[in-house]
Write a structure and sequence with these properties.
This protein is α/β, with parallel strands linked by helices. Helices cover 55% and strands 9% of the residues. Strands 5, 6, 7, 8, 9, 10, 11, 12, 13 and 14 form a ten-stranded mixed sheet that branches. The chain has a two-stranded antiparallel sheet with strand order 1-4. Strands 2-3 form a two-stranded parallel ribbon.
Length: 715
Amino acid sequence: MVVPTRIRVLRRVAWICAVLCVAVVALTATARSTVLNAGFHRAVLDDEHAYDRLYNQVLVDPEIRPVTRDLLGRLPVPEAVLTSNLKTVLPPETLRTLTDQQLGHVVDYLRADTDRLRLSVDLRPVIANVGGLSRTYFGDLVSSLQEQREPDFAAFRTDLKDAVGEVAAGRPPEGLPALALTKAQAATATDVLLRAVPEDARAALRPEVAVALENGDVATALAAVAPAAVSERTRDAATRLRTVADGGTWNVAADLELDELSRVRAATGLALDVVEPLAAVLGTAALAVLWFTGPGARTRRLRHLGWALGAGGLCAALAALALLLAVGTRPVDAPAGWPRSAARLLDDLQATAADRFLTAALTAALVPLAAGALLVGLAWTAERREAPGPAWRTGLGPAAGAVVLALAGAALVPVAFAGDGARRCMGSPHLCDRRYDEVAQLTSHNAMSTTADRFIGPLQDPLITDQLDSGVRGLQLDTYRWERPEELTGRLDESDFPPELRRQIAAAVGRINPPRPGRWLCHSVCRAGAVELVPELRQIGQWLRAHPDDVVTLILQDGISAEDTEGAFRAAGLEDLLFTPDEDPDRPWPTLGEMIDSGRRLVVFAEQADGPAPWYRNFYAYGMETPFAFRTPAELSCAPHRGGTDGQLFLLNHFITADGGSRLDAGVINTRQAVLDRVHACERSRGRPVTFVAVDYVTVGDAKAAVDRLNAERG
């Protein structure tokens, strides 16, 4: 049978059209699911640990110091801790949220889902963090002070004035004056200190400063006035940020050259809105033409369809490879002024994105290629069968199925590579499958005793929620009811306060912190500092609800009854967050992912109580610990203490209690290497991984980096 010329031409045109359309569908679907999908870019950032590298590599790069100096040059903190300040002002979770928002805006613009590119960064959380910066870091300023005896009150007063001037300038004083003062001299010295703070803050600070100076405790007096003394510089820094942000929101788009992005948008909009659907329709029509105008033998028609689909898939793969060869795996060069660490991060992100794009494109191309090979194989098999069944004589079923499979698969398979960023648990995608007892957690010892809440003899600097923002996931808290005056002496004798501080607190009875009813978080003695239990629990709950991928553990030194504790958690509205441990302490713990999926992400232990609420269990039924009464770093040991030696949970008490907390010693033992060395030693001794690394002054040193390293090692 002679085939008319026009039919032959039509078949050739249909074959070429089918090949091109299949390739276009595969490529546009790949682009839609990768470079034009915000989840793809989030996944690339997670693959390269971009946020960790930003803080641990880029911001500590000496080449970036001029930038950080200009950014934070007016903040009341030493330049030596600028990188830590950046992490405080802009926490990793805040940075991730801001980045995710901008990725969504850019992708929506490129996909033509929005007419204008709106890149606006809400800097209000950053500005709010600046306000707390001086409180958080003042402790570091006084950590290296040395006592210096002065012969007379005049010299003492002069040196005191110099010391507060240094603090107000954001520098640690070289030394603190020390002199036994009469009541009149203490009052005069109080006036000297209070001149450094705004007038409206003096009345509230006067009692605390006067009591401290009467007892010769210059450090506490200086600590009380420092946040107010540096507040003017803090306000200046916040004002600079507000100026940049135009009142709180920074319009990033106004500072960018968007002409190139507009041209890309025009091309992508045309490809997604016109080319892709048109290719799908024309491709289907071309394949139908091939079938109905093909040779009489249906097996030959199957072969023609198969070759068209296979050729389309091959063209898509070759086009993707050609695109990468033309553009390269690193199409954007870092600006000349960027530090090398930032340039390396940019290069690695581009290379990872290119790899993921190529994998998605080749997989999408493989679908029509496989469908075509299937049709060709079916035709070959049918031709060799002596008695083909009805399906082979008809051929329409396999042909239609293969066409649908090829086109739908080429369009849908790349979706698997879009990603939404790796799922994260406790800040890491690698911890979701790890059991609760296998994860190392930075723990704040006496977390409520902070300089921010003006505790006497504080053991932490930031507020509890700020500690959580900095990476703390375990909180050791002490619950109390306010002591009556007749109970004060006994409480003080049992506390870990040094003798000077005990005298200071005793002298303060009736003058500051009068007795108050209710349930409180205190450190040994509520007159030395207290915050209400229920409001603090409520803030912890609010933090957890704002961070749905985190698990937080509370270990309570319970000075109130279990019933009172249960009532406090109920009043704080935390019942839906509370996790109930298995009654059998030897049963395996769930994974972090399972706890997060259940919504039960707040674990609460007591040092003494055990129930009656099922979620309120005694810690030492489930865990063990090291001793905690170490007077020097050299005394730190892994000896057994409460809980024996076979608990699944392991609390490492990693702090010094030489007559109270020691900030200077914290600077020694909170270093990354010191924490790692002790954890490794204790894990070898006990044969169990450390769960909670409890430290004083969590913002001193780098215990968080050590905990991150531990979790990476266990992976």
